[in-house]
Amino acid sequence: MSVTRIPIFPLHTVLFPGAPLPLRIFETRYTDMISQCLKANIGFGVCLITEGKEVGGSASTHQVGTLASIQDWHMRRDGLLGIVAKGEKRFHVLKQNIEENKLMFAEVEFFEDEAQNSIPLEYEGLVDILKDRLSQLSSRFENKKTYFKDASWVGFRLAELLPLRLSQKQYFLQLCDPLQRLERLDDVLQHIDISG
């Protein structure tokens, strides 16, 4: 596996492959980072914060994150930079360092893409739950391709959209078996109320 060096954006969010990520950029270090990413046509890594804050000093993060590619950017009315990124490949952080400008960089190894698996019969109810969830969020997901027969896509979308704790979302991001992810999501759904 090849090792790649990427900038890391520590956030209080878990980004899944295929998920949209709208951001409002107001710290100079991250404005500079986005500018560099746009010029070089590269992405940045998103990692869930384990300790620290998004704003100000440096934060500690989980070692598994997702590469975000910038899909669109605009200057907002408040004068800040707005971007929409999209989750791409998951990665594992091998080594990280903080630069003088307080930006975090990491050497990462990317996960292999998950093999396409069809949805087992016992988890078809999860597809119905996902379809219902997506219909409630129609504006966010209209004109987006859907892959309701792909276990990996369904698992990632459910983990993204269900009202789970961040630690649970991180757990589902780190799982590498799409069928196991569906099994665990099915277990979790027995204990949460998704009617609202």
Description:
With 196 residues, the protein is an alpha+beta fold. The chain has two domains: 3-110, LON domain-like (Archaeosine Trna-guanine Transglycosylase, Chain: A, domain 4, Roll), CATH 2.30.130; 121-189, Orthogonal Bundle (LON domain-like fold). The chain contains six helices and seven strands. The chain has helices at residues 28-40, 124-136, 138-141, 151-161, 166-174, 178-189; strands at 3-11, 20-25, 44-51, 60-61, 64-75, 81-98, 104-110. Strands 1-3-5-6-7 form a five-stranded mixed beta barrel. Helix 2 (124-136) packs across helix 4. The longest helix is centred in the first third of the chain and has 13 residues, at 28-40. The radius of gyration is 17 Å and the shape is globular. The termini are far apart. The model has no long low-confidence stretch (mean pLDDT 91).
Record keyword descriptors for this entry:
Archaeosine Trna-guanine Transglycosylase, Chain: A, domain 4; 196 residues; 2 domains; alpha+beta; 7 strands; LON domain-like fold; globular; 6 helices; single chain; 32% helix; 5-stranded mixed beta barrel
Top-tier CATH class of the largest domain: Mainly Beta
The structural class is: alpha+beta
Q: Please trace the helix and strand order, writing H or E for each element.
A: EEHEEEEEHHHHH
Q: Which strand order spans the largest sheet, edge to edge or round the barrel?
A: 1-3-5-6-7
Q: State the low-pLDDT regions, or none.
A: none
Q: What is the CATH topology assignment of the largest domain?
A: Archaeosine Trna-guanine Transglycosylase, Chain: A, domain 4
Q: What overall geometry do the principal axes of the alpha carbons give?
A: globular
Integer-rounded radius of gyration: 17 Å
